[in-house]
């Protein structure tokens, strides 16, 4: 009888261990698939951000050069406005994807610093275009004369932002896989063990 119970106990232990290892292997495989998918999506997002930021900065510098020369035509103004509308048309989508893959802090940086710096430079130029440089206040004239500084600041914060996103991607801090990876493996093991034991002893459906 004792031999029977020992054999049954060993069989139960073997079944528990086997099921646990199988579940752990499946969990690891699922995590790797998720991580690879999110890294790929993160790379695509960074590439799109870099392209759209570059387009916005180039558009602003081009308009600024024409403004400095006093050579802005109506079609130049319309073209610049279209570039801003294009940027804003993708703004919400970019923020949503940023939040999903890189978190709320990335969204705050993108909107509150990167976008804001470009917007400040743009507002200065549009004010000068609409009012004329000679009609500006002393402060606004000073801002227009320093427009290259505003462009440089916008470019720097944009570069730093993209560089930080790349750093987060390299360190695996992206999307759901980052949250999973931050959990202690010991806690995951304890959760799995508890669940399996409850299943085998009929305590959990």
Short description:
The protein has 8 helices and no strands. With 205 residues, the chain is mainly alpha-helical.
Explain what this protein looks like in three dimensions.
The chain contains eight helices and no strands. It has 205 residues and is mainly α. The protein has one domain.
Number of structural domains: 1
Radius of gyration (CA) equals 28 Å
Biggest sheet, open or closed, and with what strands and sense?
A: none
What is the chains' assembly state?
Answer: single chain
Q: What's the total helix number? A: 8
Number of strands: 0
Please write the string of helix (H) and strand (E) elements.
Answer: HHHHHHHH
Blueprint of the fold:
Layout: H1 2-69, H2 74-89, H3 91-102, H4 104-131, H5 138-145, H6 147-170, H7 175-182, H8 185-200
Helix pairs in contact: 1-2, 1-3, 1-4, 1-6, 1-7, 1-8, 3-4, 4-6
List keywords for this structure.
205 residues, mainly alpha, 8 helices, 88% helix, elongated, disordered C terminus
């Amino acid at each position: 009888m004792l031999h029977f119970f020992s054999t049954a106990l060993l069989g139960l232990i073997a079944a528990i261990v086997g099921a646990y290892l199988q579940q752990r292997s499946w969990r690891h495989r699922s995590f790797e698939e998720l991580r690879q998918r999110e890294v790929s999506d993160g790379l695509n997002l960074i590439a799109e951000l870099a392209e759209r930021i570059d387009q916005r900065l180039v558009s602003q510098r081009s308009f600024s050069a024409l403004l400095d020369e006093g050579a802005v035509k109506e079609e130049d103004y319309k073209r610049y406005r279209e570039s801003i509308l294009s940027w804003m048309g993708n703004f919400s989508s970019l923020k949503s994807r940023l939040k999903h893959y890189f978190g709320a802090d990335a969204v705050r940086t993108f909107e509150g610093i990167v976008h804001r710096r470009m917007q400040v430079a743009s507002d200065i130029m549009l004010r000068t275009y609409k009012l004329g440089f000679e009609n500006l206040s002393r402060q606004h004239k000073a801002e227009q004369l320093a427009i290259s500084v505003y462009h440089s600041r916008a470019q720097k914060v944009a570069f730093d932002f993209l560089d930080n996103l790349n750093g987060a991607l390299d360190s695996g801090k992206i999307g759901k896989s980052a949250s999973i990876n931050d959990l202690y493996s010991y806690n995951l093991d304890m959760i799995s063990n508890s669940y399996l034991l409850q299943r085998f002893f009929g305590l959990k459906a």
